[in-house]
Amino acid sequence: MGVKADIGIAGLAVMGANLALNFESKGNRVALYNRSEDKLEYFMNSAGKGKNFQATSSIPEFLGMLEHPRKIILLIRSGKPVDDFIRNMEPHLVPGDIIIDAGNSFYRDTQRRAEHLKKRGVEYVGLGISGGEEGAFYGPSLMAGCSEKAWKELEGPLNAIAAKAEGKTCCARVGTDGAGHFVKMIHNGIEYADMQLIAEAYAYMRDGLKMTPDEMSRAFERWNTTPELGSYLIGITANILKKKDADTGNYLVDMILDTAGQKGTGKWTSEAAFDLSVSTPTIAESVFARIVSSLKEERMEAYELLPGCEVKELGRVSRTQELEKLKHALTAAKLCVFAQGFSLITTAAKAFKWEIDPAEVADIWQGGCIIRAAMLTDIAKAYRKDPKLENLLLSPVFRNTLATVNSDWRNIASYCIRSNIAIPALSSTIAYYDSFRTAKLPANMIQALRDYFGSHMFERIDAPRGKMFHAEWFDSATKITSTDYNV
Ligand code: NDP
To answer: With b meaning 16 or more CB within 10 Å and e meaning fewer, what string describes 247-268?
Structure first.
């Protein structure tokens, strides 16, 4: 056996292979493992040829190739395969080993695995990684959850391969155990909402403004140069809209079936929001929108059967002005989505004692990752100004922006609602904003209803908070009140 490797990567599919090349290009010797040999063979005879790699499909051999303390990066399918793989490695692990799960694992699984391996003196690191294949190769955004001891070993090699933006490295230890995977999960939830909002803006351009894909592409290109909307996803939308289908010569986007898939991280984000009592309606709506999109046959039937209203002709409006309004609507909505995501992060940080710095999260999302956006510079600024900020929307950094975009946001949404253009994400951001800034919500009616049928009691406007009352709405047989829970 030759010189020991600095780092090991298990799982040589698209992410593992690209990350391995990135590590090797920074001067690391890399040991590779893959369950099936064909991927290893292909890699070693193509992109990996002549480079500093050693490869095997045997776990003991793989571990034996590594320098101590052994750094073992997993890039295998998340869920049961990760548990199976850890179980297979366990007899060969020694105290001091560091396992880095860089897949999209559920943060609760990461907490469980970290707890289990700690008993054996093995460090378990949940490493959120974003940027897809390109990011893995050129520089991803990295969000680590681990002990300080493990971070001392990893900081150097991970910083070296990470993306750089605004003079900073997009890599940080955001907390312990599941913190990295939690932050990555929220990143993906925001990504779901961001993409849904882009799709809704595209629907307005296509069905309302009757723009061609080429015209839309130019609008997205312009937006991509602005501090409000400049972002990776807006940029690639401009590219997508330009692309022609090689077979038909039509725009490719027009040839793609309108059904979106999902792998579950948007659903996990929404579940975490319910668990932690944080309002993230736009992220949840974006998951539901994908579910509805998958009901293609039912939707076609419903189109024939159900009443609606025709798309209202916009008449001789200035397209330039309408696009400016749409830009304002997207700006406001995007800000609300970030507000929802960051609220979930700061709430989880308190609940799990992770001490996540939201400004640092905004920093590491500025490069390499899918949701990188110019707006994150101001988000980082807002949290640096006030690290205890309860909701991003309250920051003075964003108040002027919200004042500027507020009425156009509503105009675009109301046109879409009157014209049968489905905007679940855009409309939910308005509902989120309005609910949040309403000093007197109608929830007094909900509490009255709850007390009426279930004796759940209510607080009064003329009594201290927490003091509960019950009304005799009708002639009750028992006079017993219910134990309540507050959300
Ligand atoms: P996949 O998620 O498609 O996983 C394929 C890899 O998992 C293969 O190497 C496969 O080995 C291995 N594998 C599956 N089951 C087992 C098992 N029981 N034991 C050992 N190995 C197993 O690959 P990706 O590269 O797309 O993703 C890797 C991880 O990174 C996933 O968790 C994914 O969610 C995450 N991720 C992916 C991104 C992307 O853009 N693709 C972006 C960010 C994170 P074999 O070849 O033998 O089948």
So the answer is: eeeebbbeeeeeebeeeebbbb
The secondary structure element, H or E, covering residue 238 is helix 232-242
Q: Is the pLDDT reported for residue 73 higher than 80?
A: yes
Residue 143, beta-bridge partner list: 128, 172
Measured in angstroms, how far is the CA atom of residue 183 from the centroid of ligand 1?
Answer: 20
CA distance 382 to 475: 54
Residue reference for tokens 């309108």: 258
CB contact set of 323 (below 8 Å; sequence gap of 6+): 205, 209, 219
What are the two backbone dihedrals, phi and then psi, of residue 98, each rounded to the nearest 5 degrees? -125, 115
CB 44, CB 55: distance < 8 Å: yes
pLDDT at residue 452, as a whole number = 95
178 vs 144: CA distance, rounded Å? 9
Quote the tokens at residue 41: 């063979």
C-alpha torsion sign, points 149, 150, 156, 158: negative
Could you read off the pLDDT of 16-61 as tens digits, one per residue?
Answer: 999 999 999 999 999 999 999 999 999 999 999 999 999 999 999 9
Axis-axis angle for helices 375-385, 396-418 (nearest 10)? 130
In sequence order, which residues have a C-beta less than 8 Å from that of residue 292 and are 6 or more positions away? Answer: 299
For residue 97, report the distance from its CA to the centre of ligand 1, in Å. Answer: 22
CA distance 362 to 381: 9
Nearest CA to ligand 1 atom 32: 103
In three-state secondary structure terms, 55 is: strand
Q: Closest Cα to atom 34, ligand 1: which residue?
A: 104
Contact between residue 376 and residue 362 where contact means Cβ atoms under 8 Å apart:
yes
List 24, 123, 191, 360, catalytic entry: 191
Nearest to 117 by CA among 72, 154, 76: 72
The pLDDT score that the predictor gives to residue 477 is 76
DSSP-derived secondary structure letter, 392: G
Taken in order 14, 18, 21, 26, the sign of the CA dihedral is negative
Residue ranges of E strands in 283-435: none
